[in-house]
Every structure is written in C-alpha cells, then in structure tokens.
Amino acid sequence: MSAMRTRLAGALALAVAVVPASAETDISAQAIVNKASAAAYYQGADGKATVSMTIADAQGRKRTREFVILRADVDDLDNGEQRFYVYFSRPADVNRTAFLVWKHVGSDDDRWLYLPALDLVKRIAASDERTSFVGSHFFYEDVSGRSPEEDTHILVEETENYYVIESAPKKPDAVEFSKYKNWIHKSTFIPVKTEYYDQYGEVYRTYSALRVEDVEGHPTVVESRMEDRNIGGVTTMVYRAVDYDIGLPMDIFSERYLRTPPREHLR
Amino acid sequence: MRTPFLTELATNRPALMMQLAGVFAALMVALIAAPTLAPETFSFLQPLKIDTDPENMLGEDEPVRVYHNAMKDEFTLHDLIVVGVVDQTTADGVFTARTLSDVYALTEFAKTIRWEDDGATVGVIGVDIIAPSTVDNIEQAGLGSVSFDWLMPRPPETDEEARAVRARAERIPTLKDTLVSGDGKALALYIPITSKDASYRVARALREKIADFETGAEYYITGLPIAQDQFGVEMFRQMAISAPAAMLLIFILMWLFFRNVGLIVSPMLVAMISVIGAMGLLVATGNTVHIMSSMIPIFVMPIAVLDAVHILSDFYDRYPQYKDRRQTIFHVMSELWRPMLFTTLTTCAGFASLAFTPIPPVQVFGVFVSIGVFLAWLFTITLIPAYVMLMPKKALEKFGAKGAASESREARGLLARFLHGVGDFAVERPKAIVSMLIVALAVSLYGVSQIRINDNPVKWFAPDHQIRVADRTLNERFAGTYMAYLTLEPAAGAETLAALAAETRRLIEALDTDAAAATAARIPEAFEQADSSELFLATLEEQALEAREAAGDDAQWYEWDDVLLALDQARQTADIFKRPDMLRFIEGLQAHLEEKGVVGKTNALPDIVKTVHRELLLGEKSAFRIPDSASAVAQTLITYQNSHRPQDLFKLVTPDFRKANIWLQLKSGDNIDMNQVIEEVDAYMAANPAPVALKHDWFGLTYINVIWQKKMVWGMLTAFLGSFLIVLILMTFLFRSFWWGLVSMAPLTVTIAMIYGVIGLIGKDYDMPVAVLSALSLGLAVDYAIHFNARSRQIFERLGTWRETASMTFGEPARAIMRNVIVIGVGFLPLLLAPLVPYQTVGIFISAILLLAGATSLLALPAIITLFEKTLFRKKSGKGEFYVRHAN
C-alpha cells in the first residue's frame, strides 16, 4: 500500500515536472479551473437563453426538447451561489414543466420540480446530481456546473491555445468517473472539450463546445454536445436569444413561480 | 450374381486399395487442418467453422429472425444471462451485508467481462446490467420530497441496510419477482451480453469469480443463451467421448462374435474413414459444424459398420467351406452385393430427404450423412476385401480350423438354435404373428395420436446438470428465466392525414385568437399540398414561426406561440402509447397474461408510469395508477428520465411512442407453454380491441424456438413421407416386384409406428432429436428387410420351396442380421451415459430401432411371405415349382 502511494506520488510529481513552466501564465491548475467555471457558468450577474435540445440515441432516433434557462448569481459572485429556473415549452405535452435549482457551494443543491398536468410541485431530495437531465446525455451537474472544489486538478499539458487539466474526484464513491480531462481555452477560459474516464481508464463520455460567440462582450457557448459511448448516442444543445445582465428579480426563483411562470422573461 | 468390379480390383490390388483409402483420409484431414491451423497460407481453403447457436436452425433471412433482430435493435435489448443468488442458511436469505457485498463485487466484476473479437468488443454490456447496484430507485424522501438514487449505491455495511435494499426493491413492480424473489430471500441478476456465443465464456468467468465468495449463498447461472451456448460446447465434448466409446464397444462385441482382432479392425477402418470423409467434405465445402452436423459421426458410424458386419458374418461362416479367401470373398460379395447396394441407396435416400426440410442445418446434416453412408458403402466393398487379402494367412488359419464344418457347428450354437426356432415359429404361425403385428400397429397408431410436440433447449441437459438445477431453482423463486417479447403497434392505415387535419383544426380553433384564425384559414391549402402528416404540420409551423418572430409585443408573441403549441399537440396525437386508454389496455392484457401460470410476470410501460406516479403522489397505494391525461403520462415519464438509466424507458416503448414492447418472463421454456401464451394473446386481442386498432407480434428466443420447431416438425414429416415413397420405389425396383417391395416396407412401418407410438404413450416430448431420428429409423429399419428378402429370394432360386428356403434363410443370413442388431444396438448404449438428453435419445433410439427392426424383419417377413407365398412366388408353368416373381 505504501509502495503504491509512493509510486502514485512519483507519477504525480512526474506529471507536474513535464509541464513546461510558462513565465507569462504563472497560474495554478486550481486557478485555471476556477476561471473556467466562472467563464462557463457565471457570465454577467444574470442571464437567459432559449435552448433547443436534440437527443439522438444510439440508433439515431431523435427527440427534441425546448426550454428557457434563467440564471442569477447571488451577489454576482463568481463560483458562488446561484439560482436557475428551467422552463419547458416543447414537446407540447411537457409544456410548462419547470425545474428550480438553488445551487450551493459546499453543500447539496436544492431542487424543485413542477409538473403542470399533475399540478404538482415536488422537491427533489438531495442525492446524486450525476443523473440524466430530462433523458438527455447531459447530467444535471453539466447544466448547473460542477464546483471546482469537488475535484483535485493538475495541469497536464499546455498547448498553443489550451490548458489541459486533469481532474480527479475528491469523493470517488460519489461519481461514476475516475477522472476527466478538460481543454480550457487560454484567452476566454471556456472549456471546449471534456473527456470523462471510467475506472478502466477509457474515455466513455465527451463534452464538446461546438460554437462559441461573443454575446454582449461575454464569450458564450451557443452550441454544445455530449456523447456517451456506454449507452450510445449524442445530445446537442443550441442556445438562442442569449442575454446577460437583464436584471432578473430574485423572487422569481421560488416555488411560487413554478406554478405561475414569469412569462415576460420566458419569451 | 457376379462380383462387383471394385471388389475384384480390391482383391487384385489390395495394397493399392489400402493406400488409396489412406491417402483419401489423410487428404481430408489435411483439408481441414491446413486452413484451420494456417488460415493465411491456405486462404483458398475453408477453415473449420464451429457454430453452437440453435438460433441458426433457422436461416439468417427467416422472417422471424429478421424481426427478432430488428426488434432487439429497436428496443436495445440483448440476450440475458440470469445469475440467481440463493441463501438458505440465513433468515433473510441473501439480504445480508456479506452476501450483498459479494453481489456488488460480482456486478462490478461482470462489467469488466469484455474482450476483443475481430476488432469488436464483445462480452457483457455493463450499462444494461440489472443488479441492485445498477438500477435506480425512486422513493419518498421526507415531506413532499422524492428521491432518485441507485437501489444499492454501495455495498451495505450492516444487515439492516441489506434488508432496506430489499424493502426498496419490493416496492418497485419492475424489480419485484425479477430482481428480488417473491419470497424476498433470493436475488437474480440479469446480465446482457453482446451475443449468445459469448455466454459460455462469460459464465465461466462469473463462476471463477463466484468461487472466491465465502458465504452460504449459492449462485445459479441460467437463461436460454447459456443453455444454448453451453449445449453447443458440451456437444462437441461429448462427440469426443461418446463416439469413441461407441466404437470401442462395437469393437468388443465384434470380437466376441468373430474372435479375430485382425479381421474386425477392418469395419472400424471403414467407419473411421467414412466419418473423416464426410466431415472433411463438410468443412471443405464451407459448411459450418453446427449442433446438427456434429452428430454426423454418431449417425454414420453404425451404418458404416452395418454392411461390414454382414460381410464379416458371411465370410466367417463361409471361409471354412472354401479355405480360400479370394473365393470366399467372391462368394460373399456375390450374395451381398445387391442387398448392400440397396440398403445403402435407401439409407442415403432417407437422409437425403432431409435436404427438403426448411431448416438449413438439417439439410446439411441430411446431405452429409448421405455422403458418409455412400463412402461407407464404397469402402466396405473395397477396403474389407483388400484388408482380408492382406491379412497374414496365419491369422485366418485359426478361423478355418475352428470353423471346420462351420455351418453345422454354428448351427448347433445358441444363437443359431434360437433363430431356427424363430424361423419355424414364423412359418408355422404366420396368422398369429400378423395379427400381433396388426394389434401392435393399432396400439402404436393410438400412441402416435397422443404425441406431444414440444421442445425446450434447457431440457437438452440431463435433469441433474447444473443448468437444469439452476433453471428449476430460479423458476421456483422468480417470475421466470425464459424471455419473450410482445410488440404492439398501430394497425396499418389506422390514422389518416384527414383525421390529423381535423384534429389540428379543432385544437387551433379552440384558441380563439386572431393568430389561430389566420392559421385555421391556411389548413385547407396545407392539407392539399402535403403528402405526409409531418409535411402538413411543418408547413403550418413555418408560417406560425415567422409570425412569432415578427411579433411586436408579448401578447402577440404568445398568441403565435400558442398556435405553435397547438400544432405540436396535433403532432403528438400520434404518440398513442402516452394515451391513458392505451396504457390501460396494456395493463389489462398484462393482468390477463399474469393470471396464467406459465407467465411469471410481465414488464411494460404502465408499470413504470404507475410507479413514478405513485412516488410523485406521496407513495400512496391509491396513486399506483395510470394518470388521466396523456400530458400527465408524459410528465411522469420525463420525471422518470431524470434517472441514471433514462434509456431503460425505450426498452418498453419506442421514442415516438408508437410501438410498445411487453417483456414476458416465463417460468417454462417449453414450446407448448409459449404456444399457449401466443394463443391467449391472440384471443385477448380479438375479444378486447384496443382504443386504437393494434397489430401484435412476438420476438425473443423462447418464441424463436417455437417457430423453428414448427418448421422442424412439418419439414420432418414431409421429408419422412417423401423418403418412405422413395424407399418403396427402390424396393420395387430392387425386387422387380411391387409386392416384394411392399412386403419389404412392413418391418420398417411397424418399427417406426411402434417407436413413435411408445413416445406418444410414455409421454416423451417429440423434440428436435426425436424428429431427426425418424430419418435414421427409416434408413436402418429397411436394411434388415432388404437383406432378408434378397437372401431369401436367392436361396429360393436354388431350392424352389419356401419351407426349405426359410430354413436356410434362418441360417447364416438371419445370424448376420442378429449379429448386426446386437453389435450396433449394444454399441450405442454408452450414449445413455452422456449428460445431454439428445445423445441419450439417439442412443436409445438407435438401439430400439435396430432391435425392433431386427425382430420385425425376422418375424413379420417370414410370416407375411408364408401367408402370401402364392402371390410372391409365382408357380412356374407346368413344373409345379415356384420361381421368384419377376416383373418381366
């Protein structure tokens, strides 16, 4: 056991050693990841987007979902608390279905679900967040963001345009991956590709940012995809009508608004 | 009668003949070995291809298989290995911390059983394993909360946690009786594999892992793929044990009869070269060695030995008379030449008739057994004479000395005296015998009418085989290890574009806005132009979308958005399996099926909907129902899809919700049970039409077995009747007399009737081996009649009276027949020790066929000939003597 630990430590030291230290970007892996998280999930004080999601299964059969995501950062803090409101409009039979997420730092998120046809607001108990987001290849955590504090990060490579960060979970039992590799764009800090490895060291799940646009000065991923080799198939999300700093009132992120959606913000 | 050219050649050039046979055998072995061992060098040759999959009993393009594979793809289903865990040493069965930890470890291990084969990854499909740690649980988690989590996220640390796993699983109908046994003490894991032929290797790996566990729990591995793959593997192993064992026993018995090791090696050589030749040609022509064709040696062997025993028997009796081997051989061959040719032709015809069955492996089997039989004949008439010529003179001296005045010495022997007794009895009491035969035939026909056509590949293993034990253990405790799947989809033409247009109009007009009115006005034009539902809706959507984008204020935007929503609603009217009435129909069908004992359980879309609905509504029992609107169903299902395994939904319904799949777990894989379920469903669907007219179909291995069995039975029956006719024609031709031909058919008719009669009376199922054996019985049963009749007629030509002829026929010819019956009948009894039921069946059958055919030939033929002497031997004009009736 101790021999293994030594070997592991040796391997880690080697991994760090082979990375050329760069004078200009003297920046720790953790700092890169923090910036990336902020770039991906915390642009502006709040924001909204209309998302068209296409879920293609292993046989290429497609299903679509349309929803609006409203997001507000509590106190406009990067990598801090957040509120999400996800409002479904299509397919017609799930119209007005909504999710509410209060994202916390250092503790489990609060989540609510509203099902209009059953006129039911349900709190989703704190549990695994790495479950499918409405049947897609994305997980809940992919939509709301995984806290940089949950993993340990190592900068394993630096290319002309990207930092390649390898991250391993601090609580391996809580997640299905053994590690993941992230390609983070050097100037925008947008993660453009993430590869998840299973316990056998094989990549089984890949996220890609397909299109990044500048929206109101914020580099924004407007098309992304998630592929899962285990179950097969791919989900793509296309973001339209992206808007930042709209001044969303905080009170719409409450249970009451699940039943009476804030229509003026969902157009 | 003259000696055939080939025999003459063989006696003149015996060494050359032996060399030729040796070269032939070596060539055949090389033909298989070279491309198998060095496929690159000998790429122009066909390597040995082994196929152990009974599914290949049906052709690749057989509609039922095409549908089976298409549906497996469409619903992402795989063949399942079932691993049952039972523990009778604890009160909670397997629900203890220790055993569940083992189960957890086994599940994790199972995920890793994968390997590369031809560039593709094969083995276990980890993501679809059904085990406590791989399935999701949905349950109440405090006030107003619902929790989605793994059923057993990690190995339990205490027995209490283990019991909690059980309690959770028992609340979920798709898991109860499937994952957790009805009595709550056992577990079953369902391990999907990429293809059936991986199952043996997967099972072996699992067993190795299980061997490390140290609790009182027992692990049982079963399921049709396991049974089928393992059967294939064991079949080949049995080939290597049973065939040589049978050879050895035949050898010993021949030695008992002929007491000359040197001499009786020759039939062994004939059998071996024939088998090598038949199998070599089979492989070289690119055919796969399948379960059926692996039985070729077992079939070719007795037939190959059969003729040789006739020759040796005759030679043994004649040699002392001539004291010259060449002359003895010529004598023997002149007597046996025609009967041997015709027994060969009839046997070939019997097996070749299998080429007309609709089952490819049976066709191959029939053709190559035919070839083997032909080779056996060729080597019998050449190799045996050549071999005899090459034997040192010394070896035969003993033969001669012992057999001085052989016929009289032999005539005093026990066998001879017995046979003469039989002959006398038959000639003296022909009416009694024929009456007995008629009674036996009548009873047999009654028995045949009682035959139950049934098969179940699991039952191909002996009852104490581990697969059978696992099968019993698991089917006692769980809903069933045999899987069948029932698909439901709208009957063609159930919906029309006009109906969609009307529904669209209704939905749009209900909105009662300007935007709606504008859209409604466009419906007729869109309807005219569209040739599909999708095009019709897309046309309207495009216009509405443009209008929405151009909207000035929120009110206008939402007006147009509502139009788009209504159009999507119209589109979703096609999602019939979100409709509560359709789900209730499935629910009714499920309830109906589960009333029947053989269906342990069904899993279908309503089960998921009801479970999620219940947990959303505080877990109340009363909420375990299908909600009242399609939207409520859809929202229940989107909730379900927030799980770890959203893809499981589409094992029960297609993503367009237009085709549903009901997974049936059956406690029995017997075809009659599956057939009964099929009929139940047909009747239910006819009596209770669904709200949307549906058509239904089946897939799954249990169902496929039913289909190939049906084909097998009818194919065999027609092949059998066809070859019966061919044999009759051949007999008529051989004896140049229709009446003689007809008489020759008597023993085989009685034999076959009696054998199948007994099968019907004792309630043995008419299954695959039994069906195939009809061909063998036809081919073998006629042989003795041919020998008996041919020899009788030869003798009659000399003696002129039937009485004297009969007495002679019950000398050497009858002894040859009896020796044959004993040698081969007993020789195949070792097959009874095989752990595979088809082998036992073949063993019993060959023995019973030979015994009955021998008995009926020696009793029925003389009795019938005695009764119809005048018809069969026509009086020679003027002389008061009879001569053998000829057509010309």
From TrEMBL, chain A:
Domain Uncharacterized protein TP-0789: 80-259
Statement: the UniProt record of this protein carries the keyword Signal: yes
Record-given protein name: Outer membrane lipoprotein-sorting protein
A Pfam family recorded for this sequence: LolA_like
Signal peptide: 1-23
CDD domains noted in UniProt: LolA_like
UniProt keyword annotations, A-Z: Lipoprotein, Signal
From TrEMBL, chain B:
Keyword Glycoprotein: no
Transmembrane domains' residue ranges: 239-258, 265-284, 296-316, 336-359, 365-390, 712-735, 742-762, 817-837, 843-868
GO molecular function ontology, one term from the record: transmembrane transporter activity
Primary subcellular site in the record, as a coarse category: membrane
Record localization: Cell membrane
UniProt keyword Lipid biosynthesis, yes or no: no
One Pfam family named in its UniProt record: MMPL
This protein's UniProt keywords: Cell membrane, Membrane, Transmembrane, Transmembrane helix
Domain of life of the source: Bacteria
GO cellular component, one term: plasma membrane
Domain SSD: start-end pairs: 263-390
Membrane-topology descriptor: Multi-pass membrane protein
Protein name according to UniProt: SSD domain-containing protein
Organism: Amphiplicatus metriothermophilus
